[in-house]
Amino acid sequence: RMIDRIVGRYGELRDRPAPAPSAMTYALFDGLFQQALLRHFAGSPTAADDLRARVLGLLDRLFPP
Fold this sequence. Notes:
The protein is built from three helices and no strands. The protein is mostly helical. It starts with a helix and ends with a helix.
Protein backbone atom coordinates (compact mmCIF):
# COMPACT_ATOMS: atom_id res chain seq x y z
CA ARG A 1 0.00 0.00 0.00
CA MET A 2 2.92 2.34 0.60
CA ILE A 3 3.97 2.29 -3.06
CA ASP A 4 0.37 2.75 -4.15
CA ARG A 5 0.01 5.82 -1.92
CA ILE A 6 3.28 7.32 -3.14
CA VAL A 7 2.51 6.74 -6.83
CA GLY A 8 -1.03 7.97 -6.33
CA ARG A 9 0.17 11.13 -4.61
CA TYR A 10 2.78 11.71 -7.31
CA GLY A 11 0.02 11.41 -9.89
CA GLU A 12 -2.09 13.93 -7.98
CA LEU A 13 0.82 16.37 -7.99
CA ARG A 14 1.16 15.85 -11.75
CA ASP A 15 -2.63 16.09 -12.23
CA ARG A 16 -2.79 12.59 -13.67
CA PRO A 17 -4.27 9.30 -12.49
CA ALA A 18 -2.05 6.31 -11.82
CA PRO A 19 -1.42 4.72 -15.24
CA ALA A 20 -1.28 1.11 -14.07
CA PRO A 21 -2.82 -1.14 -11.43
CA SER A 22 -1.21 -0.92 -8.01
CA ALA A 23 0.09 -4.51 -8.23
CA MET A 24 2.00 -3.61 -11.38
CA THR A 25 3.55 -0.45 -9.98
CA TYR A 26 4.48 -2.32 -6.81
CA ALA A 27 6.25 -4.99 -8.87
CA LEU A 28 8.19 -2.36 -10.82
CA PHE A 29 9.40 -0.51 -7.74
CA ASP A 30 10.05 -3.70 -5.81
CA GLY A 31 12.23 -4.94 -8.65
CA LEU A 32 14.28 -1.75 -8.60
CA PHE A 33 14.68 -2.03 -4.84
CA GLN A 34 15.70 -5.69 -5.03
CA GLN A 35 18.33 -4.96 -7.66
CA ALA A 36 19.72 -2.09 -5.59
CA LEU A 37 19.80 -4.23 -2.46
CA LEU A 38 21.71 -6.98 -4.24
CA ARG A 39 24.17 -4.43 -5.63
CA HIS A 40 24.59 -2.91 -2.16
CA PHE A 41 25.34 -6.32 -0.62
CA ALA A 42 27.80 -6.96 -3.45
CA GLY A 43 29.69 -3.85 -2.37
CA SER A 44 28.53 -1.30 -4.92
CA PRO A 45 29.13 2.20 -3.52
CA THR A 46 26.61 3.68 -5.98
CA ALA A 47 23.67 1.34 -5.28
CA ALA A 48 21.62 3.94 -3.37
CA ASP A 49 22.28 6.74 -5.86
CA ASP A 50 21.46 4.42 -8.77
CA LEU A 51 18.21 3.39 -7.05
CA ARG A 52 17.23 7.03 -6.60
CA ALA A 53 17.92 7.77 -10.27
CA ARG A 54 16.02 4.70 -11.46
CA VAL A 55 13.00 5.47 -9.27
CA LEU A 56 12.86 9.00 -10.65
CA GLY A 57 13.22 7.61 -14.17
CA LEU A 58 10.40 5.16 -13.58
CA LEU A 59 8.15 7.91 -12.26
CA ASP A 60 8.90 9.94 -15.39
CA ARG A 61 7.93 6.96 -17.55
CA LEU A 62 4.73 6.35 -15.58
CA PHE A 63 3.78 10.03 -15.73
CA PRO A 64 5.33 11.49 -18.91
CA PRO A 65 5.21 15.27 -19.40
